[in-house]
Amino acid sequence: MEVKKVQKADLEKKRNTFFLIGLVVALGTTLVAFEWTTAPAKANSLGVIQSLEVEEEIIPITREAEVKPPPPPPPPKVIEVLNIVDDDIQIEDELVIEDTEADDETVIDVQPLIESSNEEEEAVDEIFVIVEEVPEFPGGTRALYQYINSQVRYPVVAQENGIQGKVYVKFVVDENGNVDDAEVLRPVDALLDKEALRVINSLPRFKPGKQRGKPVKVYYNAQITFKLQ
């Protein structure tokens, strides 16, 4: 007798359906496994900080014993020796006290006081800054600068290099009115300074300055302007 299967009980027809269902279940399980996360447990406390007591090493402070110098020796005792002399003995080194009281007959020798002439020599050699009568150039200050402008020769090298400025010169007008000891107070350039000194040393004689009616040496300042046009 041949065994026959009922069509409803035949599972071969549903084979593909079960296979697809198995694939879907497997895929879903895999996705759930990858996406599954676990939240970290919350810590109730950050822990306990233990403080370790470190014993500090105490370094003993030592001091050197002070060595006191020995006490100074006691001063020697002074023994006073008194020589008792009889009244009849004469003393050779007897102190004689003269009477210094002066009377009408006393003659006093007074030596005359000789004044040295060093003060006069120092006064002559002194160079004044401020005097009662200042030195005067013949014709006055305007004539002085007119003379300077007429005598100045602008150095060619300074002109080519565009060097210009004001040179301040200091010099001495002596007792005779001559110019001496000229020096540059504010230098500008070696060429301009040299030309300024040359012009100052060529100045004619001044009327000398006076102090207490006597001619004296006086400092005098002048300004020479070098300007390119």
Q: What is the succession of H and E elements?
A: HHEHHEEHEE
Number of strands: 5
Largest sheet entry: 5 strands, mixed
| Percent in helix | 10-25%
Distance between the termini: 146 Å
Oligomer: single chain
Uncertain residue segments: none
Q: Tell me the Rg in angstroms.
A: 61 Å
Number of distinct helices: 5
Helical/strand content category: alpha+beta
Shape: elongated
**Average pLDDT figure:** 76
Strand content: 15-25%
How would you describe this protein?
The chain has 5 helices and 5 strands, in the order ααβααββαββ. With 229 residues, the protein is α+β, with helices and mostly antiparallel strands. Strands 1, 2, 3, 4 and 5 form a 5-stranded mixed beta sheet that branches. β4 (209-211) and β5 form a beta hairpin. The model has no long low-confidence stretch (mean pLDDT 76).
Question: What key attributes describe this structure?
Answer:
5-stranded mixed sheet, 25% helix, 229 residues, single chain, alpha+beta, elongated
